Amino acid sequence: MDLAVYGFWMAALCLSSFSLVIFVFGDGNLGHNCNHRIDDGCELVFRGRSTTFICLTWFALFLAWEMVHMRRSFFRLESNPPHIWTMWARHAWRNPFLFWSIMAGFITVFPIIYIPGLNTVVFKHAPITWEWGIVIIEASLFFLGIEFWKFCKRVYFRRHGDKVKNPETELGATTFSRYASTAGSGAGDACVDVESQA
Question: Is residue 152 in some structural domain?
Fold first, then answer.
């Protein structure tokens, strides 16, 4: 269920970023032959692609941080933190490999968008200016949406946690328990024991 919710939220925000650039703030002109060159009125499409590309890249990177815990908020991973206002930064830095991987991914969008030739010829993007406002707002909406979903999960499990079965623990506990109990015994005893349990 988490995958569907996160995927739907990311897709909705990415499609809305492209639509905002093209149809709300732009004139709606999708140009002609925009997959091959930036001519023929494709500047707006290239800017919309850049905005969507940055949103999608940053959403995927931020999701990696959000998935440190499946239910707890990224901004409050501990119950009683000693440093309440800087706790999220401390947790982000707790895994340096993840931190620097996200920073590298975060920074790589700038050369892709702004290096001439690389942007328009290779990636079919154009430099953006005011579209950064859309990126920042949608990144904030992404965090709000993920945090809201996690909040809903916390409320659900608080109310119905004793009735909900975790398939991971249930699979290990009941399905293979009869085989695990006979692993240390002799071969002949194991066969008899397993057959009597079946």
Answer: yes
In this prediction, residue 197 carries a pLDDT of 45
- Taking residues 34-47, what's their average pLDDT? 86
The Cα–Cα gap between 9 and 93 comes to: 26
Helix (H) or strand (E) holding 185: none
For residue 58, what are the domain limits? Answer: 2-164
User: Which residues have a Cβ under 8 Å from the Cβ of 130 and sit 6 or more positions away?
Assistant: 25
* Residue 115 near residue 64, CB atoms below 8 Å: no
pTM, two decimals, is 0.74
192 vs 123, higher pLDDT: 123
Q: What is the maximum alpha-carbon separation in the chain?
A: 80
Residue 173 placed within a domain: no
If one counts the domains in the chain, the total is 1
Q: What pLDDT sits at residue 191?
A: 46
